[in-house]
Amino acid sequence: MEEGLKQRQFGRQAFGLDPAGYDTARPAYPAWVFDFLCEHCGLAPQTATFEIGAGTGTATRQLLKLGASPLIAIEPDIRLATFLRRTNPDAGLSIVNMPFEDAPLPECSFDLGLSATAFHWLDEDLSLAKVARLLRPTAWWAMLWNVFGDHDYPDPFHEATKSLLGPPLGPSGGTNGMPFALDVEARLTAMKRIDAFDSIEHRTSKWTLDLDTEQTLELYATYSNINIRPDRNEVLDHLRRIVVDEFQGRVTRHMITSLYVARRSR
């Protein structure tokens, strides 16, 4: 319990070192995700929505573009929240700068809830129970991740750098070698355990992320297990040498986008 609390506290401030750099470097979510939310989960103009762990707005911008309003974005890191507000002046967007667990949100008031590459930092059962209380009957909940790495394909860059970088910090690595976002049985079981959802579904897609040297460095500079290190700059310099010397300045990462959706029971 204490270790989980420490991880959650770390996750609330692990990504705000360079918000603009984070926003530029992190890949967007595939278009099919938002098509699915529109076609199956009711995302449309005037959809009352909340987003957990909005960060710099990678998913937020798409929600706003597709009409989510009002949209309440919950982001505990003041640096990310400030960037999100400055770069998204939309009047329909409100930002709550506190952890989701503490955020005073109106119950039974939302048509859609979303968390994009953030929900693993929360206490799963307590947070899902709160999500259910916030949603109106028949409203939808969605959890979304972009996962770096696919066990079905060789990952030479990961193999070349894992001793330098170490394992991921926090709960994203999951248990028993299965990333949190890809542990389908565990995620579906958790949503069923709350006994407040039906029409629970999981979908994935596989794709590749091709990066040059600078793009690789910019992406890895956003990783929490690099930013926490006192030798961060030396690690990034070493990473650059690996990209240039061993990969001729081109890196390909195999990606999996993982989406879970569930409907609030009547």
Task: Explain this structure.
- The structure is a single chain.
- The chain is an alpha/beta fold.
- The protein has a single domain, classed as Vaccinia Virus protein VP39 (Rossmann fold, 3-Layer(aba) Sandwich).
- 39% of the residues lie in helices and 26% in strands.
- The protein has 11 helices and 7 strands.
- It has helices at 2-11, 19-25, 31-40, 60-65, 78-87, 124-134, 156-165, 184-194, 213-220, 224-227, 232-247, and strands spanning 47-52, 68-74, 93-96, 110-116, 135-148, 197-212, 250-264.
- The protein has a 7-stranded mixed sheet with strand order 3-2-1-4-5-7-6, sandwiched between helices.
- β2 (68-74), α5 and β3 form a beta-alpha-beta unit.
- α2 packs across α9 (213-220) and α7 packs antiparallel against α11 (232-247).
- The longest helix has 16 residues, at 232-247.
- The protein is globular and about 55 Å long.
Task: Give me a quick take on this structure.
This protein is α/β, with parallel strands linked by helices.
Figure out the total of helices: 11
In which range does the helix fraction lie? 25-40%
Structural Rg: 18 Å
Major β-sheet, in short? 7 strands, mixed
**Terminal-residue CA separation:** 33 Å
CATH class annotation? Alpha Beta
Total strands: 7
Instruction: Provide the low-confidence segments as ranges.
Output: none
Features of this protein?
266 residues, alpha/beta, Rossmann fold, 11 helices, 7 strands, globular
Provide the fold topology.
Layout: H1 2-11, H2 19-25, H3 31-40, E1 47-52, H4 60-65, E2 68-74, H5 78-87, E3 93-96, E4 110-116, H6 124-134, E5 135-148, H7 156-165, H8 184-194, E6 197-212, H9 213-220, H10 224-227, H11 232-247, E7 250-264
Parallel strand pairs: 1-2, 1-4, 2-3, 4-5
Antiparallel strand pairs: 5-7, 6-7
Helix pairs in contact: 2-9, 6-8, 7-11, 9-11
Keywords: Methyltransferase, Transferase
Domain Methyltransferase type: 51-139
InterPro entries: Diverse_substrate_MTase, Methyltransf_11, SAM-dependent_MTases_sf
